[in-house]
Amino acid sequence: MAITASRITVSLGGKPILHDVDAQIRPGEVLGLIGPNGAGKTTLLRVLAALLTPDCGGVDYDGASARALGRAALARRIAFLAQGGEAQGALSVEALVGLGRLPHRRPFAEAGEVDRQAVTRALALCDVTGFAARAVGTLSGGERRRVLLARALAVEASYLLADEPLAGLDPQHQLDTLQLLRRISREGTGVVVVLHDLTLAGRFCDRLLLLDHGRRVADGAPADVLDDDRLAQVFGIHALRSSQAGESFLLPWRTLNNENAP
């Protein structure tokens, strides 16, 4: 089973954004969407989440279309963390995370014990249990980001699509977040994450999908996608490569237009 996108083409405001892009999200895997600014990463993520209808192409969700599944079933199957997602300042953190359970409840129904347990788990996973009673408006940007991730996790969906979940996070919480995404993927969730940090993308993603100018350039294991030629052609950089504790990594080092940099 998987989410499968085929030949996705999108134009927004008359501007071409994506051109014949294929993508697949598999359960138990972290897929990193990478590419330069304006490559089409967020647009593709929104198409995968059925929030944007492509001009051409389509998406199947475990073999069914979004229309066949219906909006309610799709909301239970896919959790979406938007880039710079909104959070109502007057709500408590616990109440905001509880909104993630709405797809599982009848309209106007009260939260049940299963919902409360899911919220408790999500708060703990994102290390925001201590904020539960605080108003969202009193949190820092990074704290709000973790709370919004907790709301997405509270859905307990089969697939999690996260657009730049590391934005505004300090280094510890960046690592914690990626370790968490890897953990839930190992428990069976299909995870797609938009990342700009190539070092972290190479370390924590099982597979990378590289976009450039709205086209799919490469899709495969991080070591294969992030080779020297693609780093030069797509990102215009050289990288240093090394390993630590048996784990290989790369570090963007200098731009091609700055060859004399140390």
TrEMBL record:
Keyword Transport listed? The answer is yes
SUPFAM superfamilies assigned: P-loop containing nucleoside triphosphate hydrolases
Q: Where is the ABC transporter domain?
A: 3-238
A Pfam family annotated for this chain is ABC_tran
Cleaved signal peptide residues: none
Keyword annotations: ATP-binding, Nucleotide-binding, Translocase, Transport
Asked if the Swiss-Prot or TrEMBL record annotates the protein with the keyword Cell membrane, the reply is: no
Single GO MF descriptor: ATP binding
Under the heading PANTHER family, the entry gives: HEMIN IMPORT ATP-BINDING PROTEIN HMUV
Q: What does this protein do?
A: Part of the ABC transporter complex HmuTUV involved in hemin import. Responsible for energy coupling to the transport system.
Q: Which family does it belong to?
A: Belongs to the ABC transporter superfamily.
What is the protein name stated in its UniProt record? Iron complex transport system ATP-binding protein
